Amino acid sequence: MTAVPPRPKHLDSPSLPTIFKYMGKTQVWVYRRTGGRIGAKWRVGAGFRKPVPTLLLDHRGRKSGVDYTTPLLYLVDGPDTVVVASQGGLPKHPQWYHNLRAAPDTHIQIGRDRHPVRARTAAPDERARLWPLLVDAYADFEHYQAWADREIPVVILEPR
């Protein structure tokens, strides 16, 4: 375990969600047009030294009914794909997490391949097993958890 840096003040900026939104939209646009040749590796923060694979997650707004796509870091665990609802350690769960809880059947895109999946939040024993693997894949998850006043959900995307 490394020393956790202090929580950055910019995490409290009201403009941060808007920045995340437009960065995500740009990454989705590039990822889709290049079949993942560009945008399929996260190279920010801990990903600068150890790039992390990125997928595209489709989800439907639970209130609006609007279809969204969100780029997320992931790891493969047997037949399952695992993502983290970290939102950079912000106080609230990301909207995509709430949307998946309301409508868990969805699709992911890895490279050019699109797969149907069913999302579920990892049970405590699953989270305990997966969390160290996720931190090994992207060390900043450890910082995000330390900064958040919530347990960051681990989401298992099972093939369907």
Overview of the structural elements:
The protein is α+β, with helices and mostly antiparallel strands and 160 residues long. It has helices spanning 16-34, 95-102, 124-137, 140-147; strands at 41-42, 52-60, 67-73, 75-77, 80-84, 105-110, 113-121, 154-159. Strands 1, 2, 3, 4, 5, 6, 7 and 8 form an 8-stranded antiparallel beta sheet that branches. The termini are far apart.
Shape: globular
Percent of residues in helices:
25-40%
Strand pairing plus helix content: what structural class? alpha+beta
Mean pLDDT: 90
- Number of DSSP E strands: 8
Helical element count? 4
Q: Indicate the radius of gyration in whole angstroms.
A: 15 Å
Hey, roughly how much beta strand do the residues contain? 25-35%
Low-confidence blocks of residues = none
End-to-end distance: 36 Å
Q: Quick recap of the structure?
A:
The chain has 160 residues and is of the alpha+beta class. 31% of the residues lie in helices and 29% in strands.
